[in-house]
TrEMBL record:
GO terms for cellular component: extracellular region. GO terms for biological process: cellulose catabolic process. One of its GO terms (molecular function) is cellulase activity. Keywords: Carbohydrate metabolism, Cellulose degradation, Glycoprotein, Glycosidase, Hydrolase, Polysaccharide degradation, Secreted, Signal. Its main location: secreted. The active site is at H412. This is Endoglucanase. Residues 518-598 form the Carbohydrate binding domain. It comes from the Eukaryota. The keyword Amino-acid biosynthesis does not apply. It is found in: Secreted. Its EC number is 3.2.1.4.
Length: 610
C-alpha cells in the first residue's frame, strides 16, 4: 500500500479532504494487470503459475500439421490464438518494460512482466520455423464461438494457419518482427543470449515481410472477420523497421523508414487512434524520440515530418486540434469504436505517457492549433483516462476486473465463467456450457483479475451482462498497454505524496512509507448452489515477502458477508489478526485463512504490522 493511500485513510478518519491529485492505487492495478496474462496462457502451465483456476490446454496445437505450436496466448474470451493481436500485445508489454523498467522493478513486477513477454516470444520462436514461414493462427473463430467451454475441455478444431512466400502476410510478420525486436531490448540486460536469438528472428521476419508483401487476412481468411487488416501492412513494415533500429542502432533501418515515409504513409497518415491494427501513431512517436535524442543526422527533415504527425495525435486526443479531435464521451473518455473501446483508450494513454517523458527530457512543448501543450498536460490527460478506467466515471465502476469495490462480474470469458477443473472435475461440453454457465445470472465463479473489459458506450452507459461482448469481453491487446501506464502513474503518485502536506494528520509509522512486505494470493477452492444463490469457498494465502519476521499483523477485510476461519477478529469493525498461536510470520513463510460467501470476493489489505 503506498503512502498516499495510507495518508488518505488517516485524513478520512479526522474528517479532512485529502489534498493530492492521485487517488487510486496504481500499484495494485499494475499487479492485477500482470495476472491477466497468466489467465490467458495456452499450453503447459509452469509451476509458478499464480492463477490457479487455470489448467493446461492446447497441448497438441499444431501437431496434426507437423509443427509444435503449444503455448502463446488466447486473445480474449475465447480460445483462438490470433497472431496479430498477440504480437502487438507482446510489443506493448516490451515497450512498457523498456520505457518504465525502473518503475516496474520498484513495484517488484519486472520478473512477472518479463515472464509474460517470454511466454509470447517463446511461442513466436516455435511459429517461425523457417525464414519465410510464420504460423499465424491456431483455431477458428467461427467454430470456437459455437462452443462455451473451458480451455482445458476444448473440443473445437485446432487447425493452424500460416503465411509464407506464396501466401504472404506482411502485417503479421512485421508486427511479430516488432515484438521480437522490442523484446530483445527488454531482455538484453537480463538474458543476452535470449535477446540475441530474438533479434535474429526479428531481422528474418522483417526481411520476409518486406520481400513478400501482402495482407495476412488474404492468406488466412478466417482471421478477417475478427482481426481484419484494414490499414494494410505499410504501418507494420515501418513499425518493425523502427523497432529494429532501436534494437540494433543500424542505419539501414532508419534509412528504411525515411525512404518509405511517403510511399508507406508514415508522414502522410494523421491519425487519432493507435491499436493492434493501426501502428502509425506509435511509429511517429518513436521516430519523434529519435529526433529529440539528437540522432536525426541527415534524416532530420523527414523525422520532423514524423514528429508533426505525432503532435497531431497528441492534439487530437487532448481536444486541442481545431476541427479534428478524437470523440469523447460526456464523462471524459476517449471514444473510438463500439466494440471494446477501452483497448483504444489504454493504448492512447500509454503513448501519451511515453511521449510526455520524451518531451520532458528534451524540455520541449507541443504547439496545438488551440493551445500550447506542456509535457505534464499529456501525463495529466493519460491519468484522466486511467482514472476513468479505475472508477472515476459516471457509473463509479472499475472496468479493470478485480480492482476496487465495484467491477464487472459477468465478464464475457469462457474460463472465468465456468467453475475451475479443480472444483468441477467433469467435462463441460459445448452446449452444456451455454445452458449451465453462459446463461447464469450469478457472477463468474473465477475472478479474472486485471482484465480490461470493453467498457461503456459513447454515452458512458454500461451493461454488465455476459452476452454483451462489446462491453464485457477483455482482450490481451487492450490490457497490455496498462502495464507501462500504471507503473508510471504509481511512480508519480509516490512523488506527489512525498511532497504533500496534511495539516493535523496523525504521524504515520515509518514502515508504512515503503512497500508493505506482505503478499496475498486469492483462490476459489469450492463452489455450490443453494436455491438461487451460489456460494464460493475462498482461500487467501498470506506470505511474508521480506527478510525479517512480521508480528502484530492486522488486516482489514472489506465487502465480507460470510464467515472467516483462520483469523482472529478484533473489536474494530472488519479488522482481523493472525491466530494467537501464530506469534510471528517468518521470512518467506506463509499462512492462510478461508471465508465463504456469495458474490465477488472480499478485499484484504494490511492495516498495521511490526
Amino acid at each position: 500500500m503506498n503512502r498516499f493511500l495510507i495518508l488518505t485513510f488517516f485524513v478520512s478518519l479526522i474528517g479532512l479532504e485529502p489534498m493530492a491529485v492521485f487517488s487510486f492505487d496504481y500499484e495494485d492495478a499494475l499487479q492485477k494487470t500482470v495476472l491477466f496474462f497468466e489467465a490467458q496462457r495456452s499450453g503447459k502451465l509452469p509451476p509458478n503459475q499464480h492463477v490457479k483456476w487455470r489448467g493446461d490446454s492446447g497441448l497438441k496445437d499444431g501437431f496434426s500439421q507437423g509443427v509444435d505450436l503449444v503455448g502463446g496466448y488466447y486473445d480474449a474470451g475465447d480460445h483462438v490464438k490470433f497472431g496479430l493481436p498477440m504480437a502487438y500485445s507482446v510489443t506493448m508489454l516490451s515497450w512498457g518494460a523498456i520505457a518504465f523498467r525502473k518503475h516496474i522493478a520498484a513495484s517488484n513486477q519486472l520478473g512477472q512482466v518479463l515472464d509474460a513477454i517470454k511466454w509470447g516470444t517463446d511461442y513466436f520462436i516455435k511459429a517461425h520455423i523457417q525464414p519465410n514461414v510464420l504460423w499465424g493462427q491456431v483455431g477458428d473463430g467461427n467454430s470456437d464461438h459455437y462452443c462455451w467451454e473451458r480451455a482445458e475441455d476444448m473440443t473445437t478444431p485446432r487447425t493452424a494457419y500460416k503465411v509464407d512466400a506464396d501466401h504472404p502476410g506482411s502485417d503479421l510478420a512485421g508486427e511479430t518482427a516488432a515484438a521480437m525486436a522490442a523484446a530483445s531490448i527488454a531482455f538484453k540486460a537480463y538474458n543476452s543470449s535470449y535477446s540475441s536469438l530474438l533479434l535474429a528472428h526479428a531481422k528474418q521476419l522483417f526481411s520476409f515481410a518486406d520481400r513478400f508483401r501482402g495482407k495476412y487476412d488474404n492468406s488466412i481468411p478466417s482471421a478477417h472477420q475478427f482481426y481484419a487488416s484494414v490499414s494494410g501492412y505499410s504501418d507494420e513494415l515501418l513499425w518493425a523497421a523502427t523497432w529494429l533500429y532501436r534494437a540494433t542502432g543500424e542505419e539501414y533501418y532508419l534509412k528504411y523508414v525515411v525512404d518509405n515515409a511517403v510511399s508507406m504513409g508514415g508522414t502522410g497518415w494523421a491519425v487519432g487512434e493507435f491499436s493492434w491494427e493501426n501502428k502509425y501513431a506509435g511509429v511517429q512517436i518513436l521516430l519523434a524520440e529519435v529526433l529529440m535524442d539528437g540522432k536525426g543526422g541527415p534524416y532530420t527533415s523527414t523525422l520532423k515530418q514524423y514528429q508533426a504527425k505525432a503532435d497531431f495525435f497528441v492534439c487530437a486526443c487532448l481536444q486541442k486540434n481545431g476541427g479534428y479531435n478524437v470523440d469523447m464521451t460526456p464523462g471524459g473518455l476517449l471514444y473510438a469504436h463500439e466494440w471494446n473501446n477501452l483497448q483504444y483508450v489504454s493504448s492512447a494513454a500509454f503513448l501519451l505517457t511515453v511521449y510526455s517523458d520524451s518531451l520532458s527530457a528534451g524540455n520541449s512543448e507541443i504547439k496545438c492549433p488551440d493551445a500550447q501543450i506542456k509535457p505534464q498536460d499529456l501525463l495529466n490527460f493519460a491519468q484522466s483516462q486511467a482514472d476513468y478506467i479505475l472508477g472515476k466515471n459516471p457509473k463509479s465502476i472499475s472496468y479493470l476486473v478485480g480492482y476496487g469495490r465495484s467491477y464487472p462480474v459477468h465478464v464475457h470469458h469462457r474460463g472465468s465463467s465456468i467453475a475451475s477443473t479443480s472444483v468441477l472435475h467433469s467435462t463441460v461440453g459445448c452446449v452444456e456450457g451455454f445452458e449451465s454457465w453462459y446463461r447464469r445470472e450469478e457472477g463468474n465463479p473465477n475472478v479474472l483479475f486485471g482484465a480490461l473489459v470493453g467498457g461503456p458506450d459513447s454515452k458512458d452507459e454500461f451493461s454488465d451482462e455476459r452476452y454483451n461482448y462489446d462491453q464485457t469481453e477483455p482482450t490481451i491487446a487492450g490490457t497490455a498497454p496498462l502495464v507501462g501506464l500504471f507503473s508510471k502513474l504509481h511512480s508519480e503518485s509516490l512523488m506527489t505524496s512525498k511532497g504533500s502536506s496534511y495539516p493535523n494528520v496523525p504521524p504515520v509509522p515509518n514502515h508504512r512509507t515503503s512497500k508493505v512486505p506482505v503478499a496475498f494470493l486469492h483462490s476459489i477452492t469450492d463452489t455450490w448452489t443453494v436455491g438461487q444463490m451460489t456460494y464460493y469457498r475462498h482461500k487467501v494465502n498470506i506470505k511474508n515477502t521480506s527478510q525479517k519476521p512480521i508480528t502484530k499483523l492486522k488486516l482489514s477485510i472489506e465487502n465480507l458477508s460470510g464467515s472467516v476461519w483462520g483469523l482472529s477478529p478484533t473489536p474494530e469493525k472488519n479488522t482481523y489478526e493472525l491466530p494467537q498461536w501464530l506469534h510471528a510470520l517468518g521470512p518467506g513463510s506463509e499462512c492462510s485463512f478461508v471465508y465463504v460467501q456469495g458474490g465477488p470476493q472480499a478485499k484484504v489489505s494490511v492495516l498495521a504490522y511490526n
